[in-house]
């Protein structure tokens, strides 16, 4: 075991990016470990897990050569000179602290969504990354897939006129919830940045902002209604419904655009109850967006994981309905079999190497989204998620 855990010697002429993962996290196999296998410039070199045995099992299962464990595991990984980039796969409330610690240790950071608990924290994080010349990316993977770019292009083309409203839903039926969440999941804990709007809500919000080109401004939240979670009804939302006003995008076709702002709504739920007598009939997963435009509708099925399967239904008021799919970018970049995590990794590595990624979110995209999430909680009568108590080192 000792031998296996000894780091391979560093080859400084090798452009390979050596990732370390913080947390033996459930998300990491899909989000990084598997995509890294098909990226020639990426190696998953280490994982840090607080528990020694669990860390060793995880490393063995996913063939990760090095494990850090114990109470200082995360800091040891972050400080290790053989690691170039840190994937922060921890509960939301720990993202800020560990991404900041990694940046201070001169590592690039791929941070799980939502990037931080608060908009102010994300601003601080991006400021440090910029100061140090490091890459910091929030892992809202679906935005990196060509499918949502195709939807944005159809909207942008003006073929259906300007956007009137958008409805985006991502919700799991209660029957399926135990497959996704532990009974005592971090998602249900306020102190760890839990809540459904934080966890699932960021997908519909980011996607609808992206496809309507309203991704660099904070939306106005016009209403929000939360369904409290049984473990903490006052602070943790099991479900959230919110409505917004979208700023009019200057990229819409000026011929068809009117001065009226568009509206939007999102619905998310960790555990939708069944319907009918005693809620006996289970609901289906909701994972779709509908864009209503002057001249028709666009419906996107499976916007969260479009790499698995998706379709885009374009239904003009006059004319024939068509179905589209997009698994590659229009400039030919990408591969049919890449999923959204693989596209995200491609963008991350491109950015590290100074190549122009197919898509790269501006820091303001992330910070304004978090402002909107904060406003949703406030409007729903719940406290926005609290800032981390971590105090970044002043000068590093
Ligand atoms: N992009 C995507 O598709 C998805 C993203 N996510 C995001 O990824 C992050 C992690 O989610 P997920 O993988 O489901 O999480 P897990 O429940 O698997 O937890 C991840 C790790 O968090 C660590 N951890 C550290 N402190 C605590 C604590 N106090 N309580 C609980 N865990 C702790 C544990 O590390 P250790 O091993 O050291 O014990 C654990 O392995 C979240 O931010 C979530 O939003 C989640 C799912 C999908
Ligand atoms: O893709 C996802 O689906 C379920 C969520 O709880 C998870 O965090 C999210 O990223």
UniProtKB/TrEMBL annotation:
GFO/IDH/MocA-like oxidoreductase domain sequence ranges: 150-240
Similarity-based family: Belongs to the Gfo/Idh/MocA family.
Protein name from the UniProt record: D-xylose 1-dehydrogenase (NADP(+), D-xylono-1,5-lactone-forming)
EC identifiers of the protein: 1.1.1.179
GO molecular function: D-xylose 1-dehydrogenase (NADP+) activity; nucleotide binding
InterPro entries: Gfo/Idh/MocA-like_OxRdtase_N, Gfo/Idh/MocA_domain, GFO_IDH_MocA-like_dom, NAD(P)-bd_dom_sf
Occurrences of domain Gfo/Idh/MocA-like oxidoreductase N-terminal (ranges): 17-135
Catalytic activity: D-xylose + NADP(+) = D-xylono-1,5-lactone + NADPH + H(+)
SUPFAM superfamilies per the UniProt record, alphabetical: Glyceraldehyde-3-phosphate dehydrogenase-like, C-terminal domain, NAD(P)-binding Rossmann-fold domains
Enzyme class: oxidoreductase
Lineage of origin: Eukaryota, Fungi, Dikarya, Basidiomycota, Agaricomycotina
Keywords in alphabetical order: Oxidoreductase
